[in-house]
Amino acid sequence: MDPIRVISDYVRFPSVSTDPAFKQGMLGAQQYVANLLQEAGLAVEVVKTDLHPIVLARRTGPAEWPHVIIYGHYDVQPADPLALWQSPPFEPEVRDGRIYGRGAADNKGPHTVGILAVAKLLQRRPDLPLRITFLLEGEEEIGSPSFEPFLEKYRDELSEADFVLLSDTGSPSTDQIVVTTGLRGIAGFEIRLKGPRVDLHSGLHGGAVYNPIQALAEICASLHNPDGSVNIPGFYDGVARPEQWESEELKKLPLTEQSYREFLQVDSLYQQPGYTPIEATRYGPTLEFNGIGGGYQAEGSKTVIPSEVFAKVTCRLVPGQDAQNILEKISSAIRARAPKGVKVDIRVSQGNNAYHVCPPGKPNTPADQNPVLARAFAATVEAVTTAFGRPPLFLREGGSVPIIGDIKRVTGLDSLMIGLFTPDSNLHAPNENFEIAMIERGITAYEILLEKIAGSR
After folding, report:
1. How many CA atoms lie within 13 A of 390 on its CB side?
2. Which of 352, 380, 395 is the last residue in one of the domains?
3. Beta bridge partners of 289
4. Are 149 and 201 within one domain?
5. Do residues 384 and 392 touch, judged by C-beta distance below 8 A?
6. Structural domain of residue 229, as residue ranges?
7. Is residue 125 part of a domain?
8. How far apart are CA 194 and CA 267, in angstroms?
9. N or C: which end of the chain has fewer CB within 10 A?
């Protein structure tokens, strides 16, 4: 199978899970990847959910064989704003050594790397002593609402595996791969303030009512201290600092504050107490505003006091923080700080704790760590070094993949996360792309890794 053609054909399906208008694109992507897995030699089951199906593909074998689950998702983000794409988002184009298209890097390209590696490996070694399960969902970009019920239903089968392998995390470049050892948790919510019953004429009523925009701005401003820390009592309780080896590993990244500023095209970086800006993106808890609105938004002027306003907020959480506890503390603080004259409605959208796994041989690695997982970590160093020319770094990532925590909680399985997209991949942005060199080297690395996990039985 030609990797460029396979991934390009996959990207052509506009599988936007959040928008019902893309129902056919979702179905097309699901059927395409199911056929791809079948061609690779696996038995495919399409598991129906309340929304988008989960593709479950199996290569079975004796119980003594190691068993790896390979995760991915076939749904993608909306392509907006369309005007900023250099080529149509669902008409993939190869240029400058990259495949451009929505979903190329997040996550169709990376999990197709795994499928193609398995196909090559099984063709070369049809007797490979390794059980393989692919688990590809269609709702990751909308919070995976069907995933936990699926995990509960298939708990017994999935719990028999040794670990989960996935590539839904990043690396700084194709020359330096990162194995992700931790993901921040997330607590998401929306603040909605209701003032007068309708929008008011600001000349006739200004000065008599508390403007909800002003109230919202004051509440939002109160959520941080002047030094940049989060101003919520108890927000930092239990926060676990990174291990010394993690701090040393981070220093090996080919990234400086200057190069980071230049990449972002900003003249200065935010500073959180206790963390450098680069440390803060991986190890620090945050509170960020993702959207804000209310009142007149179109061109020109309309002198109104709005009836309702909103702000969308997410917190990234680190080990030691509990998402539900954080949401309760923030909700209490916001309600206490809201001025009289506005009604507060806080709508929670998501809450997941951080995930962390220790590679073998590091401080605080559990003595009873799954031996197959320990072997897989060691094999990853060999596989990445062979395929990419240098060993991987073991780092936490600042993003959140909530299903990883769900898998751990429901099945007890840890995850081995190999980053195959880079900052230049433009995830969730126009001109998303996947580097062809990453595809080729990634297939080689996966093939070596899986063969090493299988051993020579």
Report:
1. 11
2. 352
3. 313
4. no
5. yes
6. 196-239+285-352
7. yes
8. 37
9. C
